[in-house]
Amino acid sequence: MNETESTKEDVESAYGSEVTFNSDSLLKKEMVSVQTSTRNMWRDLLIDRVRSYSIEQWAGAFILFLILMNSYANSSDIKNTHFMILTLQQKVYHLQKAFEAFKMEKEESSQMGNEMIKERINEALNEEKTLFVSENVEKTVENQTCLTPKPIYKINAASYVMGAEVDTSRSSNSSLYRFFGDESEQVLIDRLEPPAKKAWCSEDKEPILTVNLAEFIKPTAISYQHFKWNHIVPHGAPQIFDVLACLDFSCEQTVPLVSNAEYKSNDKKQEQIYPIAQFPNASLIGKVQFRFRKNHGNVKETCVSLVRVYGETDQLPKKEEPTLRKLEYCSSLKYDYHNNPLSYRYGRIKDCKKLYSYGCCSICPECYEDCPIVDVESLGFGLLIFFIFTVIACLLAFLANKYKK
Question: What is the C-alpha separation between 200 and 304, in angstroms, rounded?
């Protein structure tokens, strides 16, 4: 018996005698049947094994799976929590260091604060000594006396550069009063030496000069300074005058500040100061009136150079800081003053407010001494140039239209 016949007999014995096929189909079917039976065997074995476990065992396995998953999640949360704790510790450490540094700086600043404030105030005072001086104020707080950093300033409230002005409607007619380009405020420009040609002169028998002050102040003193003289005060300078505080805008109600003040020749001081003896502590004034009753030489014309009204205020006068552009302007103005008189006179704006705000007094004091209140010459020259160019432009336009036709 050969190998094929033995295979057939085995197949017939396994599946019955009814199965008939040739040798090739028999071999293929045998292999498929073996594979199918092997898969079925493993499947049946797996099903039997699964069925062999009870419900309690499956529940325990499921609970164990949940416990493992929860443990893994907790381990991840523990890592994140640990990282957050480390981060918070670092932030707390930095905040503690910053607080310690801030505390040290605060202690140092509290010790040095008053000294720094005093130094800054002293610097401001040194820059403009003619305007104001400061005094420390003692203040009692909770039964303890201490120096406050806020001082009281004694200022010249009649200074033009601070904002004071002459009330021309309530003053006598003067040589400086003009309909266009009024120069009356020259009597209020706080110069070290007022120029003679800028004096406020009046031919009234008892001329009156009314001044709107730059600030409301508690008045402490009045002063008068004539232009420079030696040994004897020039004729026409005020000799006897009174100063009154105006309680209303029209000066109908007044209170005397200084009476019978005398500008003396034997004093030898250009500026002579007259303290105000008594004045209500709570009263503030914003307007004063000078009444000149007699002049030196008993001449027809009285010429007033410079008046000052000193008083106390808690407001620090504002002053613009000089910039490089302003300093260059002052330097070029000084050059034109000495080298280009025509350019300085007609081509440069040089009114007193601008020169003061630009800080030109220290660079070009000669410019500041002669500065006008309103620069009429340069303004008029500018208007003339503008008019000439306008006429030329109109003439050229007329000629162009004529040639087109």
Answer: 5
Residue 187 and residue 235 in contact, taking contact as beta carbons nearer than 8 Å: no
Rounded to 10 deg, the angle between the 3-15 and 23-52 helix axes is: 40
pLDDT at 222 over 50: yes
CB 295 within 8 A of CB 232: no
What b/e string do you get for 114-131 counting C-beta neighbours within 10 Å, with b at 16 or more?
Answer: eeeeeeebeebbeebeeb
Higher pLDDT, 142 or 246: 246
**Phi/psi of residue 169, each to 5°?**
-70, -20
CB atoms within 10 A of CB 175: 15
With contact defined as beta carbons under 8 Å apart, do 26 and 33 qualify? Answer: no
Q: How far apart are CA 265 and CA 275, in angstroms?
A: 19
Lowest mean pLDDT among 22-26, 161-165, 253-257: 22-26
- Which DSSP symbol is given to 184? G
Q: How many CB atoms lie within 10 A of CB 100?
A: 10
DSSP 3-state assignment of 134? strand
Q: What's the token pair of residue 258?
A: 């200084």
Burial class, 268, CB count within 10 angstroms (exposed 0-12 / middle 13-18 / buried 19+): exposed
Each residue's pLDDT tens digit, 261-275: 999 987 678 899 999
pLDDT digits (tens, 9 = 90+) for 346-360: 777 788 888 888 888
Residues 6+ positions from 358 with CB-CB distance below 8 Å: 322, 326, 327, 329, 330
Nearest to 197 by CA among 216, 183, 212, 181: 183
Least confident of 42-46, 76-80, 324-328, 336-340: 76-80
